[in-house]
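@channel sequence for tomorrow's demo:
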Amino acid sequence: MNYIIDAISSRMTERGRSGRFSTWPVPIAMLMTAAAVEYGIGWCEGEFASRCDERTLKKCLNRALIDFNRPATQVYLSTYEDHDNYFLLLEDYITF
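structure tokens (generated this afternoon):
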């Protein structure tokens, strides 16, 4: 991810577009796929009992960020009172 971010940043600077575009440090689809696979494997193997474990999901997201070489990126989960299996996921952003 660092190579891609550096390449985009360089192009934005070359074209005088610095400060105009933002994105996630890791595309959310890539991040969630990696974290969800790890989460699913852990649940199937009995590593945690609850099908919807917020703390474990957060750990899986943080491990995925490390794998994508973005360990300083913060991920935020929000829950909803009426839904015990639904999260809003927010990720830090970077501006080029």
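heads up for whoever presents: The longest strand covers residues 83-91.
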